[in-house]
Amino acid sequence: MNEKGKLIVISGPSGSGKSTVVNKAIQGREDMCFSTSVTTRSPRPGEVDGKDYFFIDPQRFQEMVERDELLEHAQYVAHSYGTPRAFVEQKLNEGLNVILDIEVQGARQVREKKKDAVLVFIVPPSLDELRRRLVNRGTDAPDVIEARLQRASEELKETELYDYLIINDDLETAAREFTSILTAEHCKVPHRIHLLKDF
Length: 199
Prior knowledge:
Blueprint: E1 7-11, H1 18-26, E2 32-34, E3 37-39, E4 53-55, H2 58-66, E5 70-76, E6 79-84, H3 85-93, E7 97-101, H4 104-113, E8 118-123, H5 127-137, H6 142-156, E9 164-167, H7 171-186, H8 189-192
Parallel strand pairs: 1-7, 1-8, 2-7, 3-4, 8-9
Antiparallel strand pairs: 3-6, 5-6
């Protein structure tokens, strides 16, 4: 019998390198997938419905909220985004670990609805290092960088919500820690007790 997958929530400040850590950790693994979100915004060139996002209209989005069909949802720049419960449950039942890359408020919503979700917070070693990474990225104006640093300071106050904290000082080490978390979670008794039925 296949083990059910784990729902893994990843959060961390912009510039913490969380996507890089996770992609490194799951490279070559067939038991992992990223959740596909629903959004009310229009597809960008090259985006595929059902792969990049599920593109829906605002009325359908509101219906999903009212029917509790979303594990979490939020609004950014006049558009709504959310994690569809049915998609996540389907993948978990197929034995896949599903990764959600979401912000703290979304993680809080998921924690309320999925008590067995595993919440992982990824941070750089210091705010100075975060500033250096954001500057070196070269994509944000100085005022945007300051706003991101302020946001990071606020997010760090929410880390007690999470189960695990990864300090992304070295990519290889951080990726190994993420893999170790997955292994440990799958070895927990509540997750495997059903395998003992034949003993």
